[in-house]
């Protein structure tokens, strides 16, 4: 690990001052410390944001405000989340291990880096790690890689389960800039697609601090998080889906769907939802939804299974929610 | 950087390079070598310690991030003699090489608290609890602790027997 200065301020102003000078924030550190050990990330100054009072879950209109430092464990166990946003509890509990969830934070989970093995292997080319160096994943061994939102420069997957549930729930990310001005952005406006600059993963400006996540009022309907992975626990998703669905008079009255394990960011396709709403559930309808979802997929060698698996996971999820 | 830690009830004031992980501070600076460095990347759980009541991977945390925190390592589980959990690990042969055992012990100690506090898991049928430490719940909740000797049958038996003993104690007290 390269040397760095460390600060643990107890007010936001001091954190902003450090950020203005180019500091990097650390939440739980479960991904960042690892990346620093590997010298894939080497901040000159590290600012611990765990003492800024960003660790509360509070009512916010008809929804909830989740502080950026709330741990994944506390968020999953919060009774309001369990009752009103069970899909979020389920997504969190499906991710990582008990030890990691105790340390990992809401803001940090959103900003965790991809688990593409080539990103972590400094002996290989990676446009995300070293812009312009190429992509060793293309033509390499592929499994935990994206098939949607990819580019010829990068097919790295966004690994979060939590963010998939948040995307489905239309959560907003609350960001404070170095002047202390706050703004709220949707997840699709936080995450960039890789394009020709996969190193630029978010729209955050230097020094921006995620201070919280805002959940809108809970959607009416049944919620579900289904995750398929290579082992039963403690593994990233091959495919996952976060879903809310409400039936009325035998037809799908409303639904929201977001996907993990397939996109370069938590994936949502409004066309799929439009296709389903107002229709009578059937296997043919679910298959059609899968076709629409996967129509833009780029299936590099080794990833063809994701098309089949995603369609089946979607179909099984919709079947369960419409029964 | 000045950092104070309370470890197994003892107060320590350390002056640390910010790069020192909590695990290295415990092992190399406080000479508490019970906590083990397995993968050093948060994947194996051998370094699991309990910080302010929560189990974490000590390898993925900087010691300076824990200024003022209360840490329990495997050495702290037996301050008043071998804990029931430790005795049950011996009884059920819950180890072979023993390298993962300190992490297993700290993790299992915290798992029993998590169950008592009504925390759900991925395999819980409902999200509102309460929960019992069934074999499925145990496998899920302990999935962050790997045992390369694959002593899982003994580890599981030891934890399940300890959980039963604790339930009996609570019922006897009532």
Account of the 3D structure:
The complex is a heterodimer of chains A (323) and B (174). Chain A has 323 residues and is α+β, with helices and mostly antiparallel strands. Among the domains of chain A are: 5-50, Uridine Diphospho-n-acetylenolpyruvylglucosamine Reductase, domain 2 (2-Layer Sandwich), CATH 3.30.43.10; 222-322, CO dehydrogenase flavoprotein, C-terminal domain (Enolase-like, domain 1, 2-Layer Sandwich). Chain A has 13 helices and 11 strands. A 5-stranded antiparallel β-sheet of chain A has the order 4-5-8-6-7. In chain A, a hairpin with a 2-residue loop joins strand 4 and strand 5. Chain A is globular and about 60 Å long. Chain B is an alpha+beta fold. Chain B folds into 2 domains: 2-78, Ubiquitin-like (UB roll) (Roll), CATH 3.10.20; 84-173, [2Fe-2S]-binding domain (DNA polymerase, domain 1). Helix content of chain B is 35%, strand content 14%. Chain B contains 5 helices and 5 strands. Chain B has helices at 22-29, 84-91, 101-116, 135-141, 152-173; strands at residues 2-7, 10-15, 48-51, 54-57, 69-72. A 5-stranded mixed β-sheet of chain B has the order 2-1-5-3-4, with helices on one face. In chain B, helix 2 (84-91) crosses helix 5. The longest helix of chain B has 22 residues, at 152-173. Chain B is globular, with a radius of gyration of 16 Å. Classes of the chains: A alpha+beta (323), B alpha+beta (174). At the A-B interface, helix 2, helix 3, helix 4, helix 5 and helix 6 of A face strand 4, helix 3 and helix 4 of B.
């Amino acid at each position: 690990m390269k040397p760095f200065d460390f600060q643990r301020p107890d007010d936001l102003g001091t954190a902003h001052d450090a950020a203005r000078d180019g500091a990097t924030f650390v939440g739980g550190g479960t991904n960042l410390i690892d990346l620093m050990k590997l010298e894939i990330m080497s901040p000159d100054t590290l600012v611990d944001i765990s003492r800024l009072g960003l660790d509360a879950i509070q009512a916010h209109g008809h929804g909830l405000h989740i502080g950026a430092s709330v741990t994944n464990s506390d968020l999953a166990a919060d009774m309001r989340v369990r009752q009103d946003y069970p899909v979020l509890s389920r997504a969190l509990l499906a991710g990582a291990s008990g030890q990691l969830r105790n340390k990992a934070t809401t803001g940090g989970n959103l900003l965790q880096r991809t688990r593409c093995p080539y990103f972590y292997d400094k002996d290989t080319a990676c446009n995300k790690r070293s812009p312009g160096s190429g992509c060793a994943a293309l033509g390499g061994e592929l499994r935990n890689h994206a098939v949607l939102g990819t580019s010829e420069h990068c097919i790295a997957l966004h690994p979060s389960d939590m963010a998939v549930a948040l995307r489905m729930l239309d959560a907003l990310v609350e960001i404070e800039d170095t002047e202390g001005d706050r703004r709220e952005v949707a997840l699709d406006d936080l995450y960039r697609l890789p394009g020709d600059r996969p190193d630029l993963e978010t729209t955050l400006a230097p020094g921006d601090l995620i201070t919280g996540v805002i959940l809108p009022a809970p959607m009416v309907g049944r919620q579900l998080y289904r995750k398929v992975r290579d082992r039963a626990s403690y593994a990233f998703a091959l495919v996952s889906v976060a879903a809310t669905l409400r039936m009325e008079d035998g037809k799908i009255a409303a639904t929201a769907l977001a996907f993990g394990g397939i996109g370069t960011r938590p994936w949502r396709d409004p066309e799929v939802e439009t296709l389903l709403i107002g229709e009578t559930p059937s296997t043919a309808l679910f298959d059609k939804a899968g076709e629409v979802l996967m129509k833009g997929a780029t299936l590099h060698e080794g990833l063809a299974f994701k098309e089949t698996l995603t369609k089946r996971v979607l179909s099984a999820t919709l079947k369960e929610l419409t029964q | 950087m000045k950092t104070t830690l309370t470890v197994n009830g003892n107060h320590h004031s350390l002056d640390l390079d910010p790069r020192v992980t909590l695990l290295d501070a415990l092992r190399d600076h406080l000479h508490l070598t019970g906590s083990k460095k397995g993968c050093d990347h948060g994947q194996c759980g051998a370094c699991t310690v309990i910080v302010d009541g929560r189990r974490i991977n000590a390898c993925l945390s900087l010691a300076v991030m824990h200024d003022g925190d209360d840490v329990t390592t495997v050495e702290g589980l037996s301050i008043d003699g071998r804990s029931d959990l430790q005795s049950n690990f011996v009884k059920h042969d819950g180890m072979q090489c023993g390298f993962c055992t300190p992490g297993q012990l700290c993790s299992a100690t915290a798992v029993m608290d998590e169950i008592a506090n009504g925390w759900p898991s991925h395999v819980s049928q409902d999200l509102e609890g309460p929960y019992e430490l069934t074999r499925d719940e145990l496998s899920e909740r302990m999935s962050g602790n790997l045992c390369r000797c694959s002593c899982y049958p003994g580890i599981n038996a030891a934890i399940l027997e300890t959980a039963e003993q604790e339930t009996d104690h609570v019922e006897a007290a009532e």
